[in-house]
Amino acid sequence: MEKFAKVLSRVFDGSLISIPIFIIICLAVIKNPLSALGWAFLCILFGTLIPYLYIFSLFKKNMVDDMHVPNKENRIKPLIVTIICYILGYFVLYILKAHIFLRSIFVASIIITVILTAITYFWKISFHTSWVTFVTITYCVLFGKWMLTLLLLTILVGWARVKIKRHTILQVTLGAAISAIVTLFVYSRYGFIDLF
Predict the structure, then answer these.
(1) Other Cβ atoms closer than 10 A to 46
(2) Residues 6+ apart with CB under 8 A from 108
């Protein structure tokens, strides 16, 4: 079971798997497939690729011993770089007049990551469950409430992180909860869901 937990943890860390997720989102909100792929490239560049390459460079220089950066003390710099990338990504999308849903994704990502980074100074909260929860809500908005079944994936990923002793139950639960609250609030403000 521990091997299975490690595989889950690696697959759903929000790095490489976010590439097809961004592509699916862009294809869903943009009618022209070629145009959608172009926007997906920009989202992947700022939302995934640059932060991933920065962490990879730290790993190659032996400044971190794992691409997941298990020590919370080592997470701050990569997280700050990630926040900067999200902000730059948002402004690029805004200037280029990207679909408003894509911009809302970056707004939610910025707020969530800032909150989780602040918490990381004191406590090792789960980014894994936060990310999976964010994707679940995003897909629900795009494809319907049946996508709430993906919440089972949040639970499974949370179990995996606890199983391999990277987080406590409270850390994975609050990671998911913070992401859910922020994502619902942002999508509500942008008019994609009606909370009241």
Answers:
(1) 23
(2) 134, 182, 183, 186, 187
